[in-house]
Amino acid sequence: MSQEEYFIYTIIVKLFSLNINCFILTVYCGNGQQTAPWTVNGCNECTCSLTGTNCTPIQCDQSLQCNSNERTVPYNSDGSCCGYCEPITCLYNNTVYQVGAIIQATNDPCLNFTCTTSGLIPQYNPCSTQTYCTADVRTYDTQKCCYTCNDTCRVEAMLMMATVTVSNQNTKENNKYKGNVPLARCIGTCKPGLTFSYNSRMISVTGNCCTVASMTKTSCALNNTNTTSNDTYDYEYNITTSCKCLTVWPMP
Known about the structure:
Low-confidence stretches: 15-21, 23-34
Number of helices: 2
Helix content: under 10%
Strand content: over 45%
CATH architecture of the largest domain: Ribbon
Number of strands: 17
Mean pLDDT: 78
Largest sheet: 5 strands, antiparallel
Number of domains: 3
Radius of gyration: 45 Å
Distance between the termini: 134 Å
CATH topology of the largest domain: Cystine Knot Cytokines, subunit B
Structural class: mainly beta
Shape: elongated
Order of helices and strands: HHEEEEEEEEEEEEEEEEE
């Protein structure tokens, strides 16, 4: 094999080892050297050599001026190679939020997240001014996190089982009637008061108690405890309708 034939044979072997783009361009150039650049999708500049195809993104000379709530995307392979400004967002529970949005946690009413350019920042509300009280007197805020205690003097409904014995004047028999009687009671706290004694020239703390302010007469039906009788007894009683704080003066 002559030197010229060996050279052609070497070129052919190297050409078949390249991809199709390099193969076509190298054959066109015919010298096995790095070929002239070409573009792919308008955003990548590629060159071909005996080692393969090398592609790099095409960048614009101008610099992007993005806002603080945006991030710079260097280039878009499907469009402009000069890049663009993309709004920074936060993803929480499959929902996209803008920067500055306050997000309430799904499993904790006292936990919020703030969407920032650095991501989600947690903020926990410890309800530092909250004092304990039973659930029936709690008033929660709009987030169902912190509550205030409505432990003022008030009327609270209640039920009490009552049994009444009624004598029949005609038959001289005693019938028992039984049932739940709706009642009401006064519960809650009253703020202590202050009084000034002219005799002792001292200020004394007076205690206040929650007591009945008004009552009204009502009635309810009690059932006969005799299972063979279906009659009822109309039981009348007084029920509390309002409460008040009564000042209790200290002992002299």
